[in-house]
Request: fold
Amino acid sequence: MKVKVGIAQMACVADKQQNIVRYTEKVRELAAGGAQIICLQELFASLYFCDVEDYDNFKLAESIPEGPTCQHFMSLAKELGVVLVCSLFEKRAEGLYHNTTAVIDADGSYLGKYRKMHIPDDPGYYEKFYFTPGDLGYKVFKTKYATLGVLICWDQWYPEAARITSLMGADMLFFPTAIGWDISQDEATNDEQYQAWQTIQRSHAVANGVPVISVNRTGREGNMQFWGGSFMTNAFGRVLYQAPHLEETTHIQEFDLEESDHYRRHWPYYRDRRIDSYSPILKRFIDE
Reply:
């Protein structure tokens, strides 16, 4: 079975409605080009507000799926007949917020949400100030075109997350992302960081025999230059497309989902997994 996946790598602005309008245009453009599944970058409706700890930023959050942004993209998905993976700032209750991705089927129906499990706290990425860690576990979503596994940004560094999501039956893994370089860094450091980021995600494709779609933002926000470089791999980690670092772009890539069986037969990691020996991974650290 073949499926066409579209991505939009964009720079965001401070005005939330303007971002939504621009992304609506890109979804229409991708759908017109034949995309059946479209993934948007992490927290696409706003600037990446986690670079500071500011209580006013909580006003950006909405309920999911009842909020206006999710409802808008549900209507758009129905109109265009496309599956949408939408990363949003979720207000779950008073004082309780999540970094969440809503998955919308091609008929506009809301299939569910994934709440980001791994929450970073680093200079420029103060996400623990805003987001409660996800409590829904890992998720897959059976859409019209494929069964999608969705993880979010910092989740992409953890092979356990990709493994569990793949074992749940994901045909492909999606990683909406917002990651960048501090403007004071040198080019060698920038390249090392980007290569590590791409390599760890390509390894998820290799280890699990599923395509990986990683969608990052671009543009400069404060002292952060988001490094773009969105990319897509086949089910053995081969890069099929890589976006530029500093430019906005859209792309549509066709995937043959039957390739997963080919790679899993020739590289039978699932067959040879020693699940009886893996209990130590449940420990924080293995002390003597």
